[in-house]
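Posting here for the record, re: cytidine-5'-triphosphate.
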Amino acid sequence: CIAKEQPQLLAGKTITITAGPTREAIDPVRFISNHSSGKMGYALAEAALLLGAKVNLISGPVTIKAPTGVNLINIESAEQLLNESLNYAPRSDAFIGCAAVADYRAATVAAQKMKKQGDELTLTLVKNPDVIAHVANLQQNRPYTVGFAAETQNVANYAKGKLKNKNLDMICANDVSQSDLGFNADNNALTLYWHNEQLELPTNSKTAIALTVIQQLAQRI
Ligand code: CTP
Ligand code: CA
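Prediction output follows.
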């Protein structure tokens, strides 16, 4: 049970959080996406609100409701996510990239519904921009930047690599090799990494995990 009255550690702070999947159009009726439910990002938004922050929640398409009081910005594609992130991040004290951004999008989006043709279809995909790396490399008004890393193997090494290579301040590593944790689940277990420190958060509800992540963040901004 999360106590309703939390010390207002984030009073006067603005936190921008990305959540959910992105959708990359193939034609007017089809897209590439992933199973992200948005639950973790929405739980982070709720926790930041509880601690008194002003919260911008930039969200891909999800079925859950945004917490009352957030500024919800709906996006679909990674390119839209990048535009909104670069709009809000420089006006934020912290930026948390929890969205499951599609790594690739279709090189061309068909203007009309594609017709079925041969027995095989090859789609050419091109790499999407790395949203959080753009934010973390802002030259002016760079917010404290927190990433997520969902991994099925070598979790610590991959997460620490992303912390460094993307120029982040903190990363939340998620071992998604167990299907009841992480993607689309109600529970999660994370390891938080900074450049010189780490903290294990054992399995708990996404609500409880989110509160701890936000409390850790609040101590550092
Ligand atoms: N991320 C992003 N833009 C992308 C891809 C990822 O902002 N195009 C962010 C995610 O929101 C997350 C972090 O980068 O905070 C790590 O995402 P992840 O998919 O684990 O890392 P990638 O760099 O895409 O590497 P890979 O998928 O190959 O493991
Ligand atoms: Ca990826």
